[in-house]
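Next comes one such specimen:
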Amino acid sequence: MFIDLQTPKEDIKKLLQEINFFNTTNEYIINITKPGEGNMNVVLRIETNMRSFIAKQSRPFVQKYKDIEAPIKRIDVEYQFYKTISSNALLNKHFPKVLKYNAENHLLILEDLGACEDMTYLYNTRTLETKQLELLVQIVANIHNAKAPKDYPENKELRLLNYQHIFELPFIENNGFSLNEIQAGLETLSLPYKKDAVLKQKIKEIGSQYLSEGTTLIHGDFYPGSWMTKNNQIYSIDPEFSFLGFKEFDLGVLAAHSILILQNKSALAFIKKSYPSTINAILLEQVTGIEIMRRLIGLAQLPITRSLKEKENLLQLAYTLIMKGTTKTDT
Protein backbone atom coordinates (compact mmCIF):
# COMPACT_ATOMS: atom_id res chain seq x y z
CA MET A 1 0.00 0.00 0.00
CA PHE A 2 1.31 3.43 -0.96
CA ILE A 3 0.64 6.32 1.40
CA ASP A 4 0.93 10.09 1.07
CA LEU A 5 -0.56 13.29 2.48
CA GLN A 6 -3.89 12.53 0.83
CA THR A 7 -4.24 9.06 2.34
CA PRO A 8 -6.95 8.95 5.06
CA LYS A 9 -5.57 8.70 8.59
CA GLU A 10 -7.54 5.53 9.24
CA ASP A 11 -5.97 3.82 6.23
CA ILE A 12 -2.48 4.75 7.40
CA LYS A 13 -3.31 3.56 10.91
CA LYS A 14 -4.54 0.25 9.50
CA LEU A 15 -1.31 -0.22 7.57
CA LEU A 16 0.79 0.56 10.65
CA GLN A 17 -1.24 -1.94 12.66
CA GLU A 18 -0.77 -4.60 9.97
CA ILE A 19 3.01 -4.24 10.13
CA ASN A 20 2.90 -4.33 13.96
CA PHE A 21 4.06 -0.77 14.46
CA PHE A 22 0.85 0.40 16.09
CA ASN A 23 0.71 -2.25 18.80
CA THR A 24 -2.20 -0.85 20.74
CA THR A 25 -5.77 0.10 19.87
CA ASN A 26 -5.39 3.17 22.09
CA GLU A 27 -3.00 4.90 19.68
CA TYR A 28 -4.45 7.10 16.98
CA ILE A 29 -3.13 9.61 14.45
CA ILE A 30 -3.56 13.29 15.20
CA ASN A 31 -1.69 14.91 12.33
CA ILE A 32 0.20 14.08 9.14
CA THR A 33 2.55 16.65 7.61
CA LYS A 34 5.47 16.89 5.21
CA PRO A 35 8.67 17.39 7.26
CA GLY A 36 10.71 18.89 4.42
CA GLU A 37 11.43 19.01 0.72
CA GLY A 38 12.36 15.45 -0.22
CA ASN A 39 13.40 14.61 -3.77
CA MET A 40 13.48 10.84 -4.01
CA ASN A 41 10.75 9.49 -1.72
CA VAL A 42 7.45 10.22 0.00
CA VAL A 43 8.33 11.43 3.49
CA LEU A 44 5.68 12.05 6.15
CA ARG A 45 5.78 13.20 9.74
CA ILE A 46 3.06 11.30 11.60
CA GLU A 47 2.00 12.56 15.01
CA THR A 48 -0.12 10.37 17.25
CA ASN A 49 -1.51 10.84 20.75
CA MET A 50 1.60 8.99 22.00
CA ARG A 51 4.54 9.89 19.77
CA SER A 52 5.85 11.35 16.54
CA PHE A 53 7.80 9.53 13.84
CA ILE A 54 8.89 9.78 10.20
CA ALA A 55 7.48 7.42 7.56
CA LYS A 56 9.53 7.17 4.40
CA GLN A 57 8.34 5.21 1.38
CA SER A 58 9.91 4.65 -2.02
CA ARG A 59 8.16 4.56 -5.40
CA PRO A 60 9.31 3.19 -8.78
CA PHE A 61 10.14 6.78 -9.76
CA VAL A 62 11.72 9.92 -8.30
CA GLN A 63 9.03 11.53 -6.18
CA LYS A 64 9.92 15.10 -7.20
CA TYR A 65 10.26 14.21 -10.89
CA LYS A 66 7.78 11.43 -11.54
CA ASP A 67 8.87 10.99 -15.17
CA ILE A 68 12.28 9.75 -13.96
CA GLU A 69 12.22 6.05 -13.13
CA ALA A 70 14.10 4.93 -10.02
CA PRO A 71 14.49 1.53 -8.33
CA ILE A 72 11.87 1.03 -5.64
CA LYS A 73 14.28 -1.12 -3.59
CA ARG A 74 16.38 1.93 -2.74
CA ILE A 75 14.53 2.08 0.59
CA ASP A 76 16.05 -1.31 1.40
CA VAL A 77 19.50 0.11 0.72
CA GLU A 78 18.79 2.89 3.19
CA TYR A 79 17.66 0.34 5.78
CA GLN A 80 20.79 -1.77 5.23
CA PHE A 81 22.92 1.35 5.69
CA TYR A 82 21.28 2.17 9.03
CA LYS A 83 21.63 -1.45 10.14
CA THR A 84 25.32 -1.47 9.23
CA ILE A 85 26.18 1.67 11.23
CA SER A 86 23.92 0.85 14.20
CA SER A 87 26.76 -0.26 16.48
CA ASN A 88 28.82 2.93 15.95
CA ALA A 89 28.41 5.23 18.96
CA LEU A 90 29.37 8.43 17.12
CA LEU A 91 27.11 7.76 14.15
CA ASN A 92 24.20 6.95 16.46
CA LYS A 93 24.34 10.59 17.58
CA HIS A 94 24.12 11.91 14.03
CA PHE A 95 21.64 9.64 12.23
CA PRO A 96 17.99 8.93 13.04
CA LYS A 97 17.22 5.55 14.57
CA VAL A 98 15.21 2.95 12.67
CA LEU A 99 11.94 2.19 14.42
CA LYS A 100 10.49 -0.24 11.87
CA TYR A 101 11.18 -1.53 8.38
CA ASN A 102 8.61 -3.23 6.17
CA ALA A 103 10.01 -4.47 2.87
CA GLU A 104 6.63 -5.51 1.47
CA ASN A 105 5.35 -1.92 1.53
CA HIS A 106 8.77 -0.33 0.85
CA LEU A 107 8.29 1.54 4.13
CA LEU A 108 10.95 2.73 6.55
CA ILE A 109 9.89 4.30 9.85
CA LEU A 110 12.48 6.51 11.49
CA GLU A 111 12.96 8.49 14.64
CA ASP A 112 11.60 12.03 14.34
CA LEU A 113 14.54 14.38 14.87
CA GLY A 114 12.11 17.25 15.47
CA ALA A 115 12.18 20.76 14.09
CA CYS A 116 15.39 20.47 12.08
CA GLU A 117 16.29 22.43 8.98
CA ASP A 118 18.49 21.20 6.20
CA MET A 119 21.80 22.98 5.83
CA THR A 120 21.36 24.26 2.28
CA TYR A 121 21.13 27.72 3.87
CA LEU A 122 24.95 27.58 4.08
CA TYR A 123 25.23 28.30 0.35
CA ASN A 124 23.87 31.78 0.85
CA THR A 125 25.27 32.58 4.30
CA ARG A 126 28.61 31.55 2.76
CA THR A 127 29.81 30.31 6.13
CA LEU A 128 30.95 26.89 7.26
CA GLU A 129 32.60 26.82 10.65
CA THR A 130 35.79 24.84 11.12
CA LYS A 131 34.19 22.78 13.89
CA GLN A 132 31.25 21.97 11.61
CA LEU A 133 33.53 20.79 8.81
CA GLU A 134 35.62 18.83 11.29
CA LEU A 135 32.52 17.03 12.56
CA LEU A 136 31.35 16.28 9.02
CA VAL A 137 34.73 14.72 8.24
CA GLN A 138 34.45 12.63 11.44
CA ILE A 139 31.00 11.43 10.43
CA VAL A 140 32.23 10.42 6.97
CA ALA A 141 35.31 8.70 8.41
CA ASN A 142 33.14 6.65 10.78
CA ILE A 143 30.84 5.64 7.93
CA HIS A 144 33.86 4.51 5.95
CA ASN A 145 35.12 2.47 8.90
CA ALA A 146 31.83 0.59 9.34
CA LYS A 147 32.07 -3.12 8.61
CA ALA A 148 29.57 -3.68 5.84
CA PRO A 149 28.53 -7.28 5.12
CA LYS A 150 29.78 -8.88 1.91
CA ASP A 151 26.22 -9.04 0.58
CA TYR A 152 25.63 -5.31 1.08
CA PRO A 153 23.36 -4.08 -1.76
CA GLU A 154 25.21 -3.07 -4.93
CA ASN A 155 22.56 -0.39 -5.52
CA LYS A 156 23.50 -0.54 -9.20
CA GLU A 157 20.26 0.84 -10.63
CA LEU A 158 20.32 3.96 -8.48
CA ARG A 159 24.03 4.41 -9.11
CA LEU A 160 23.39 4.25 -12.86
CA LEU A 161 20.79 7.00 -12.47
CA ASN A 162 23.20 9.05 -10.37
CA TYR A 163 26.01 8.35 -12.82
CA GLN A 164 23.99 9.97 -15.61
CA HIS A 165 23.36 13.11 -13.58
CA ILE A 166 26.93 13.43 -12.28
CA PHE A 167 29.17 12.21 -15.06
CA GLU A 168 27.17 12.38 -18.31
CA LEU A 169 24.22 14.75 -18.70
CA PRO A 170 25.92 17.95 -17.45
CA PHE A 171 28.58 17.59 -20.15
CA ILE A 172 26.31 16.98 -23.15
CA GLU A 173 25.87 20.09 -25.30
CA ASN A 174 22.22 19.58 -26.20
CA ASN A 175 20.89 17.84 -23.12
CA GLY A 176 17.48 19.53 -23.22
CA PHE A 177 18.21 21.62 -20.12
CA SER A 178 18.41 25.37 -20.64
CA LEU A 179 21.03 26.87 -18.34
CA ASN A 180 20.03 30.37 -19.44
CA GLU A 181 16.71 29.81 -17.69
CA ILE A 182 18.72 29.40 -14.49
CA GLN A 183 20.92 32.42 -15.16
CA ALA A 184 21.46 34.46 -18.31
CA GLY A 185 24.86 33.68 -19.81
CA LEU A 186 25.35 30.38 -17.96
CA GLU A 187 24.88 28.32 -21.14
CA THR A 188 27.70 30.17 -22.88
CA LEU A 189 29.87 29.77 -19.79
CA SER A 190 29.33 26.01 -19.87
CA LEU A 191 30.14 25.40 -23.55
CA PRO A 192 33.97 25.21 -23.34
CA TYR A 193 33.65 22.41 -20.78
CA LYS A 194 30.96 20.56 -22.73
CA LYS A 195 33.17 20.69 -25.84
CA ASP A 196 36.40 19.63 -24.11
CA ALA A 197 36.99 16.02 -25.16
CA VAL A 198 39.99 15.52 -22.84
CA LEU A 199 38.04 16.81 -19.85
CA LYS A 200 35.09 14.58 -20.66
CA GLN A 201 37.37 11.54 -20.96
CA LYS A 202 38.78 12.26 -17.48
CA ILE A 203 35.25 12.55 -16.11
CA LYS A 204 34.27 9.29 -17.80
CA GLU A 205 37.20 7.50 -16.16
CA ILE A 206 36.10 8.63 -12.69
CA GLY A 207 32.54 7.68 -13.58
CA SER A 208 33.67 4.15 -14.42
CA GLN A 209 35.28 3.91 -11.00
CA TYR A 210 32.03 5.13 -9.41
CA LEU A 211 30.20 2.22 -11.08
CA SER A 212 32.85 -0.31 -10.05
CA GLU A 213 32.60 -2.37 -6.89
CA GLY A 214 34.62 -1.18 -3.93
CA THR A 215 35.11 -2.17 -0.31
CA THR A 216 34.24 0.99 1.64
CA LEU A 217 30.76 1.83 2.90
CA ILE A 218 29.72 5.09 1.24
CA HIS A 219 26.89 7.47 2.18
CA GLY A 220 26.61 8.40 -1.49
CA ASP A 221 24.96 11.82 -1.20
CA PHE A 222 26.83 13.65 1.56
CA TYR A 223 25.97 17.29 0.84
CA PRO A 224 24.03 20.07 2.67
CA GLY A 225 20.66 18.77 1.49
CA SER A 226 21.41 15.60 3.50
CA TRP A 227 22.67 17.48 6.55
CA MET A 228 20.20 18.62 9.17
CA THR A 229 20.73 20.95 12.10
CA LYS A 230 18.93 21.67 15.35
CA ASN A 231 20.31 23.44 18.43
CA ASN A 232 23.83 23.38 16.96
CA GLN A 233 23.63 19.62 16.50
CA ILE A 234 24.28 18.14 13.04
CA TYR A 235 22.46 15.10 11.70
CA SER A 236 22.77 13.26 8.41
CA ILE A 237 19.91 11.63 6.53
CA ASP A 238 18.99 10.06 3.16
CA PRO A 239 21.67 7.39 2.60
CA GLU A 240 19.65 5.70 -0.17
CA PHE A 241 22.53 6.26 -2.63
CA SER A 242 24.80 4.18 -0.40
CA PHE A 243 27.06 1.47 -1.84
CA LEU A 244 30.43 -0.16 -1.34
CA GLY A 245 32.80 2.09 -3.23
CA PHE A 246 35.76 4.40 -2.67
CA LYS A 247 36.06 6.88 0.18
CA GLU A 248 37.20 9.73 -2.07
CA PHE A 249 33.70 9.93 -3.51
CA ASP A 250 32.06 11.00 -0.23
CA LEU A 251 35.02 13.21 0.62
CA GLY A 252 34.98 14.83 -2.82
CA VAL A 253 31.28 15.64 -2.54
CA LEU A 254 31.88 17.10 0.92
CA ALA A 255 34.84 19.16 -0.37
CA ALA A 256 32.93 20.37 -3.44
CA HIS A 257 30.00 21.72 -1.46
CA SER A 258 32.33 23.27 1.12
CA ILE A 259 34.03 25.11 -1.75
CA LEU A 260 30.66 26.16 -3.23
CA ILE A 261 29.74 27.56 0.20
CA LEU A 262 33.02 29.31 1.01
CA GLN A 263 34.00 30.33 -2.54
CA ASN A 264 37.56 29.13 -1.98
CA LYS A 265 39.36 25.80 -1.83
CA SER A 266 40.60 26.00 1.77
CA ALA A 267 38.23 23.19 2.79
CA LEU A 268 39.99 20.78 0.45
CA ALA A 269 43.29 21.05 2.33
CA PHE A 270 41.43 20.86 5.65
CA ILE A 271 39.67 17.64 4.64
CA LYS A 272 42.92 16.05 3.48
CA LYS A 273 44.55 16.94 6.79
CA SER A 274 41.60 15.95 9.00
CA TYR A 275 40.65 12.62 7.43
CA PRO A 276 42.23 9.99 9.67
CA SER A 277 43.47 7.51 7.03
CA THR A 278 45.30 7.50 3.72
CA ILE A 279 43.47 8.88 0.70
CA ASN A 280 44.24 9.32 -2.99
CA ALA A 281 44.50 13.10 -3.19
CA ILE A 282 44.33 13.23 -6.99
CA LEU A 283 41.14 11.17 -7.02
CA LEU A 284 39.70 13.33 -4.24
CA GLU A 285 40.42 16.49 -6.22
CA GLN A 286 38.94 15.04 -9.40
CA VAL A 287 35.69 14.06 -7.66
CA THR A 288 35.60 17.50 -6.04
CA GLY A 289 35.96 19.21 -9.41
CA ILE A 290 33.33 17.04 -11.08
CA GLU A 291 30.82 17.68 -8.31
CA ILE A 292 31.40 21.44 -8.42
CA MET A 293 31.04 21.50 -12.18
CA ARG A 294 27.93 19.34 -12.39
CA ARG A 295 26.19 21.37 -9.71
CA LEU A 296 26.82 24.58 -11.65
CA ILE A 297 26.04 23.41 -15.21
CA GLY A 298 24.04 20.23 -14.63
CA LEU A 299 20.41 19.44 -14.02
CA ALA A 300 20.71 19.05 -10.25
CA GLN A 301 20.86 22.75 -9.45
CA LEU A 302 21.35 24.04 -5.92
CA PRO A 303 19.53 26.85 -4.05
CA ILE A 304 22.57 29.02 -4.60
CA THR A 305 22.96 32.67 -5.56
CA ARG A 306 26.25 33.46 -7.30
CA SER A 307 27.21 35.98 -9.95
CA LEU A 308 28.23 34.76 -13.37
CA LYS A 309 31.81 35.80 -12.58
CA GLU A 310 31.78 33.79 -9.36
CA LYS A 311 30.51 30.75 -11.25
CA GLU A 312 33.17 31.27 -13.89
CA ASN A 313 35.86 31.24 -11.19
CA LEU A 314 34.40 28.11 -9.62
CA LEU A 315 34.24 26.33 -12.98
CA GLN A 316 37.87 27.23 -13.68
CA LEU A 317 38.86 25.86 -10.27
CA ALA A 318 36.85 22.70 -10.91
CA TYR A 319 38.53 22.25 -14.29
CA THR A 320 41.98 22.53 -12.68
CA LEU A 321 41.08 19.98 -10.02
CA ILE A 322 39.76 17.48 -12.55
CA MET A 323 42.67 17.84 -14.97
CA LYS A 324 45.67 18.05 -12.65
CA GLY A 325 45.49 17.10 -9.00
CA THR A 326 48.38 18.03 -6.76
CA THR A 327 49.92 15.10 -4.93
CA LYS A 328 49.64 11.37 -5.25
CA THR A 329 48.60 10.54 -1.71
CA ASP A 330 47.83 12.38 1.47
CA THR A 331 47.14 11.39 5.03
In short: The beta strands are 29-33, 42-48, 52-57, 98-102, 107-111, 117-118, 216-218, 227-230, 233-236, 243-245. Residues 325-331 have pLDDT under 50 and may be disordered. The two ends are 49 Å apart (CA to CA).
